[in-house]
Design goal:
Length: 193
Amino acid sequence: MIGESASIDAIRKHRLANPAIAAKHNLSTDPAQIQKELIAFQQARGALPPYQVTASFFVPARSNLPARVSAAAAGIKRAAQGTAVVLDWLSSGGAPVAQELANQRAAICVACPKNVDGSWYTTAPAALIKSTLEARKDLKLETPSDTTLKSCDACKCLNRLKVWCPLSHIVAKTRPEIMAEFPPACWIARRDQ
């Protein structure tokens, strides 16, 4: 077992030897920052007890949070899960479904009551991912319904992007409680390919 100092040095050397990865994930090479990250990691895995801190904005009691803050946090958490579905798809090659299938899915989404205006934390990442995908000249991710596709209120995904994602990735990465919120007519709930 190596000590904290040796661990910090090893992490720093690894990051310095891999600048592209460090830059991509915004990883610091500052020893003080690495120490903070290492302590947080050890606490998260239960190897160190959490710090005993006085009450502050960052560690409020749950009962002190306004309902709108709790709701926003839950929405962001759900959006992060939806983003994980898309990231899994992209990391496995990102091949979109056929145009006809995306068109059918889009038509279903447009008629769905859960097709609602998305929050900034759902639309901004999805738009960035979509533009990244479209940078490939062989992809044109558009459906006739794009102007009326919004965000899914069940999973918080941007429908204009999700209709292109293979169903296997969606089903494998979506939590059961979210799957249960898709309406019966939804192509995801019906498991339409």
